[in-house]
Amino acid sequence: MSSALQFANQIANFEFKARNKLNETVQNTLLQAGKFAVYASPVDTGTFAASWNISNNTPDPKITPGWNPRNSKKTDFLPGGRATGLVPSFVDTRLRNSAASLQAGGVAYLTNNTPYAPYVESGSKTTEAQYIVRRIQSALRGWAITSAMQAPA
After folding, report:
1. Considering the entire predicted model, what is its pTM?
2. Are 49 and 43 in contact (CB under 8 A)?
3. Are 91 and 50 in contact (CB under 8 A)?
4. b/e map of 88-98 (b: 16 or more CB within 10 Å)?
5. What is the pLDDT of residues 55-107, one digit of tens each?
6. What does the buried/exposed string (b/e) look like for 14-24 if buried means 16 or more CB atoms within 10 Å of the residue's CB?
7. What is the mean pLDDT of the chain?
8. Measured between alpha carbons, how far is 48 from 130 in angstroms, rounded to an integer?
9. DSSP string over 45-69
10. Are 49 and 91 in contact (CB under 8 A)?
């Protein structure tokens, strides 16, 4: 095999590995953001926490009926109605499957389409603002750096 062909194969192999590492970094970062959103969500019926969606190139309009905290183990929730670090398995599976479709260079969305999402995020006269999206925005760069460092070479 000629040295030019070997060099071309090395470049193609490098490009393949780099693209995979970038895709894995994007996927892991958005998955972490999605799990944080679920974890940071106040829980009453569970619909708000369960309705966080990750999508590729277009916002996901779904609202997911929640897991009911009254039917869950007490250890799944912290005082004040917040979920523990354990994301309910059906939400975790959906977020993982959605994140797996993300590609570097595309547009990824993390959405919550419940009608009261703006009030949870920004507050109202009767509810305190949770600033979930703002907190995610603040943490994204760190999550991306950590994901990139953990991705296989």
Report:
1. 0.78
2. yes
3. yes
4. beebeebbeeb
5. 989 998 888 776 554 454 444 444 444 554 456 677 788 888 999 989 988 89
6. eeeeeeebebb
7. 82
8. 12
9. SSHHHHTEEEEESS-----PPPPPG
10. yes
